[in-house]
Design brief:
This protein is α/β, with parallel strands linked by helices. The chain has 9 helices and 12 strands. A hairpin with a 3-residue loop joins strand 5 and strand 6.
């Protein structure tokens, strides 16, 4: 079964610092180097005045997806339905194609200002899957969850891949596959990222992320989204395409923004990979 993808082609995360540099694409969106865009809804709710008008100019011309930051799916606090109400309105107002969130938590009697790893346990699978189902019921649409980069795994009773797959199955939701996270985690925790990607349920993938990271040490990589994508991550992207076929892929860049020539060059690399033939080893299709 082919995955249900809400968008297609090459995507770019829209940050406020990029709105000016990217404004020329509004004049001819059909020739832009990206096909869709992504934002974190919390960074744009509420919004009014000139900023709202500038943002609307992008959402009127490009398909959008959203990637949430603060729902805290694995947190001990009750789900924030006020936030979800605002998100639901935002999705409708801007015709957003898909809402995704992190398979993590970021609150415990207050905001932790970081994405913390959920213990890989059977109890956590049931807890998180139930919360994901509640979110999907409230939004009246499927959501995608992203496996996060993590630097410790306290209290774990199962592997990361078994945990992720169990949540996806029990919640019956989609997957946002982050290729860079798979690479970073593989170095930090000593596993084969190709095997991790191959073991994911490709039919659940809604789209992919690719990004750069920081080399803290040879055996410690930090997910930053502040530098260029490196060759091993590009190779993992190619591996994902070989496994599942070409899927929509979005470039994340959160700071240290290069000029459009460099940024568009990375988008062009994604498109080059997407134009390669992968039919000989596809699992889906």
């Amino acid at each position: 079964m082919k995955p249900e993808t809400p968008v297609s082609g090459v995507g770019l995360g829209l940050r406020r610092a990029l709105m000016g540099p990217l404004s020329p694409t509004l004049d001819s969106p059909e020739s832009a180097p990206f096909d869709f865009m992504e934002v974190a809804p919390e960074n744009w709710i509420p919004m009014g005045g000139r900023l709202a008008k500038e943002f609307r100019a992008f959402t009127e011309r490009f398909p959008f997806v959203t990637h949430g930051l603060s729902l805290s799916l694995g947190g001990p606090e009750p789900l924030d339905f006020e936030l979800l109400k605002a998100v639901k309105g935002f999705l409708k107002e801007h015709n957003i194609r898909r809402y995704t969130e992190h398979l993590s938590y970021c609150s415990d009697h207050g905001h932790l200002y970081d994405l913390m790893p959920i213990p890989f346990t059977e109890e956590a699978v049931h807890y998180v899957a139930d919360r994901v189902r509640q979110v999907q019921d409230f939004l009246e649409q499927p959501i995608g969850i992203e496996h996060v980069s993590y630097y410790a795994a306290p209290g774990s009773e199962m592997s990361e891949i078994d945990f992720v797959n169990a949540v996806l199955e029990e919640a019956d939701c989609q997957l946002l596959l982050d290729v860079n996270n798979a690479y970073v985690n593989s170095i930090n925790h000593g596993y084969d990222p190709r095997e991790f990607i191959s073991a994911l349920p490709g039919e659940r993938i809604c789209y992919l992320h690719i990004a750069g990271h920081f080399d803290e040490a040879e055996d410690l990589k930090v997910d930053t989204h502040g530098s260029a994508v490196i060759d091993p991550v590009w190779q993992l992207l190619e591996h994902a395409y070989q496994e599942f076929g070409v899927l929509p892929t979005l470039l994340e860049r959160d700071f240290n923004f290069p000029g459009n020539d460099v940024l568009f060059g990375e988008l062009g690399q994604i498109r080059q990979y997407q134009h390669q033939p992968y039919s000989a080893t596809r699992k889906l299709g």
